[in-house]
């Protein structure tokens, strides 16, 4: 299938080198289970669950049927001063699988909106408590929190920030935890790097705890190339935040819904944040949706302070969209019935071993793994170094495998329904592609 020149110019693609893509477009046409089919009939094994989101595999009939039934029954129902049962039902089901202390949820339509919602709730909380000066946010270098102004500001990927001027005021960044000189080829959580969390104490000393509302981090940074938290690091952040009356936000947009060998990274690492952001796997990506989970102390404080009026002046036309809620409920049922979170844990060892088998290649500088996520970092290539990740990605695609690349790191995060044979296929194709491209 060919794209016309007009079609190509009409569609400005997100986070894409449009010139490169449009010079040789790759078009997906259908999907089922672990596979896509391209417009020219090629089968592609999905090694990244869409974009870290199709955790139960593609076009699951239970979810598709729930969406079909809901779109025929009520296509849309507003959520401002009005409700529909599905949103309440889904909120309750969601809260039931979140960490115990997180008892309230607020719906958005994406991870970026979830991040903005989390930051705004943190501000509203301190305002409700009369702590008006607590307005600063602390993000982390190499963090990714979506594309809104809030998320871009607390995010720490330079290319994502540098086109957009000053962004939000009052944002400070922690150092990232990537320490290849000490931690290369770690299995799971790296040993070294807890001291990177101590930097938070320095920031607090410098700015004053009375000026800081929240710290936001991804428990495992995905988009920046899979950075697994060093042992003790998240616990240390939790301890410092609690001691200084600063909220801890975990951005679980990627790590949620079974990706890391448990329902959520907070549960796997046994560190409970004050607010969590969710999206992607929340509906198995069938319908766009995001959410935040909030501790009762935050919800109650905002609720009680604002009597006889709207408690939180925030929301979206599509918050709690009935079709998204229907998809979300069906998705949770699939996760539960097929025990996919447990499956992710049970495959972790096999998957990790397969990922680490690439360390025998000279050009592989580092392999990082946790749950069903792996990052394979490649050495710089002499010839055309800047296009290395992309060339590996293309070679994989040409050989029937979808991977992600960010700089020189290839990320793998397959649907949780993957079989061992398919894991082997991913890493043998990747090995072949890396050898070919170098
Ligand atoms: C950790 C994290 N937060 C937020 C987002 C943004 O989500 P969305 O693209 O749905 O806005 C992403 C997307 O990849 C993400 O990885």
Bound molecules: pyridoxal-5'-phosphate
Question: What structural class do helix, strand and pairing data support?
Answer: alpha/beta
Instruction: Calculate the terminal CA-CA distance, rounded to whole Å.
Output: 31 Å
Indicate the radius of gyration in whole angstroms.
Answer: 22 Å
CATH topology of the largest domain: Aspartate Aminotransferase, domain 2
Overall shape: it is globular
- Mean pLDDT, to the nearest integer, reads 97
Q: Strand order across the biggest sheet?
A: 4-10-9-8-7-5-6
Helix content: 25-40%
Can you tell me the number of structural domains? 2
How many strands, which pairing sense, and closed or not: the largest β-sheet?
A: 7 strands, mixed
CATH superfamily of the largest domain: Type I PLP-dependent aspartate aminotransferase-like (Major domain)
Give the second-level CATH assignment, the architecture of the largest domain: 3-Layer(aba) Sandwich
**Unreliable segments (pLDDT under 50, ≥5 consecutive)?**
none
Number of beta-strand segments: 15
């Amino acid at each position: 299938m060919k794209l016309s020149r007009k079609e190509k110019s009409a569609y400005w693609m997100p986070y894409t080198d449009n010139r490169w893509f449009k010079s040789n477009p790759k078009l997906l046409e259908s999907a089922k289970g672990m596979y896509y089919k391209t417009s020219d009939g090629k089968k592609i094994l999905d090694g990244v669950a869409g974009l870290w989101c199709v955790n139960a595999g593609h076009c699951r009939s239970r979810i598709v049927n729930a969406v079909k039934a809901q779109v025929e029954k009520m296509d849309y129902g507003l959520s401002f001063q009005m409700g529909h049962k599905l949103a309440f039902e889904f909120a309750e089901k969601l809260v039931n699988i979140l960490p115990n202390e997180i008892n309230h949820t607020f719906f958005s339509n994406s991870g970026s909106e979830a991040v903005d919602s989390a930051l705004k709730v943190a501000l509203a909380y301190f305002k409700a408590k009369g702590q008006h000066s607590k307005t600063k946010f602390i993000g982390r270098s190499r963090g990714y929190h979506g594309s809104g102004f809030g998320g871009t500001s607390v995010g720490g990927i330079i290319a994502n920030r540098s086109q957009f001027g000053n962004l939000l005021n009052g944002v400070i960044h922690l150092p990232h935890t990537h320490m290849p000189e000490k931690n290369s080829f770690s299995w799971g959580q790296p040993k070294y790097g807890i001291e990177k969390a101590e930097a938070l104490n320095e920031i607090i000393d410098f700015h004053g705890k009375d000026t800081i509302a929240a710290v936001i981090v991804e428990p495992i940074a995905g988009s920046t190339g899979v950075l697994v938290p060093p042992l003790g690091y998240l616990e240390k952040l939790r301890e410092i935040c609690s001691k200084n009356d600063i909220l801890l936000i975990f951005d679980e947009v990627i790590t949620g819904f079974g990706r890391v060998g448990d329902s959520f990274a907070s549960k796997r690492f046994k560190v409970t944040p004050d607010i969590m952001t969710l999206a992607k796997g929340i509906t198995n990506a069938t319908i766009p949706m995001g959410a935040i989970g909030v501790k009762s102390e935050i919800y109650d404080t905002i609720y009680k302070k604002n009597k006889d009026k709207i408690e939180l002046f925030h929301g979206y036309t599509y918050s709690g969209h009935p079709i998204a809620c229907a998809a979300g409920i069906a998705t949770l049922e699939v996760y539960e019935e097929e025990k996919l979170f447990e499956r992710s844990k049970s495959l972790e060892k096999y998957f990790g071993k397969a990922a680490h088998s690439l360390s025998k290649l000279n050009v592989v500088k580092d392999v990082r793994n946790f749950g069903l996520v792996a990052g394979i970092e490649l050495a710089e290539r002499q010839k055309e170094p800047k296009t290395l990740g992309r060339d590996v990605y293309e070679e994989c695609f040409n050989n029937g495998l979808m991977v992600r690349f960010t700089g020189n790191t290839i990320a793998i995060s397959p649907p949780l329904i993957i079989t061992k044979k398919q894991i082997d296929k991913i890493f043998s194709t990747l090995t072949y592609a890396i050898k070919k491209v170098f």
